[in-house]
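User: As part of a screening pipeline, I want to sanity-check one entry by hand. Below is the sequence and the SMILES for S-adenosylmethionine. Please return the complex as structure tokens so I can compare it with the automated output.
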Amino acid sequence: MAEAHSSKLRLDQVVSALTSTKFTSGSTHNFYLYPARFSPEIARTVIETFSQPGDYVLDPFMGGGTAIIEGLMLGRSMIGIDINALAHFVANTRTRPLSPCDEERIREWAHGTAHCFSDFRPEPLPQVKNLPPTVKLLMGRALKMAERLPFSRQRAFARCVLLRLGQWALDCRDHEAPSQRNLAEKLPMLTDQMLSGLQEFVTRCHEAGLRSNRIVSQRLLLCRNAVGLDQEPKLRDLAARPSLVFTSPPYPRVHVLYHRWQVRGRKETPAPYWIAQIPDGHYASHYTGGSRTPTGERNYFSLVRAVFSSVRQVITHDGLVVQLIGFADIDNQLPKYLNAMADAGFEAWRPAGSQVDRFWRRVPNRKWYAKLKGTVDASSEVLLFHRPRC
Ligand SMILES: C[S@@+](CC[C@H](N)C(=O)[O-])C[C@H]1O[C@@H](n2cnc3c(N)ncnc32)[C@H](O)[C@@H]1O
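Assistant: Here is the complex for your manual check:
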């Protein structure tokens, strides 16, 4: 009786997190506004409800690492996979503690760049399509100065600050396009905010029993295709198998730009790869699982089948898969999605105390609404539960 009551209570918490429109930030969540990220509150509630401290939790489409951050702050061991080098870079930097000495060097870099911005002389910079010249010049100089930082973790943090600065500069929803002076003034402020966010992350990990020097070894982040995950040598060395998968795959036929920034909502620039200094070179469909054509949709469902077949091989025999997903056309695509899960060896599961095996939510603030004229399907997301079929 008491157990049934507590299951009901925990399920209510998941439903309440799902329907909440409260904006949750803090910790390192604001380091990079990864497209289609899920709310930290949902990630936290699902991980807290369906796993125990010390358990392994897998996110095979980790994006910017929302689940990884929340899981570590709950004392879980986290495994994150993403095909996008930018996602891997961001998730890594968000969950890597820095020493006071690192912080000091990074602050010096931010102030140094800000102070000498008026001395910037035009210098040869690589071609970065559609990046406004003011932003490019400051970024170029700040990147050059970041190269002088002695440790790779310091350089990575500095680049992450520049990614956030770039997003702020190109968004321009609440301000005019910034001048170079504006950008230079913003840099040290942003650096301080992000360093405080990282400290908060470390403190919360510590409260969950995870000391600062253990955080990096408590997470395994891989930049790779989630298809064939079962052949990944690094997963074979783990002390235990993941018992929970919590993830948000790309959405079928929903166009999301995971790999480009839009300049004032229009022209696309590959600038984030230049700033993070990581390889680029794929088309949008590489990250969305398929284009918006009928062939693209077939490729998408083949991908879902292949990824979850691999996932089934690496999780515990009674592991739980919880995923949040949206559709361009629910009536047509949800049955296909459920079939793909069945082909991968999973069956729908109903949480204790629930009448249903899926929960819907309205999604606040998704940019792609505007592109789907007349349809509202992709403004809803569904939380699905699956277990491996015996
Ligand atoms: C909806 S986003 C995940 C967002 C994430 N939950 C967050 O909070 O940031 C889906 C992610 O799946 C990744 N992805 C697409 N195809 C993949 C594949 N075959 N293997 C691994 N990751 C893939 C994309 O790069 C994208 O980052």
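Points to compare against the pipeline: The pocket of S-adenosylmethionine is lined by residues 34, 36-38, 61, 63-64, 66, 81-84, 87, 225-227, 248-250, 258, 287, 289, 303 (CB under 6 Å). The chain has 13 helices and ten strands.
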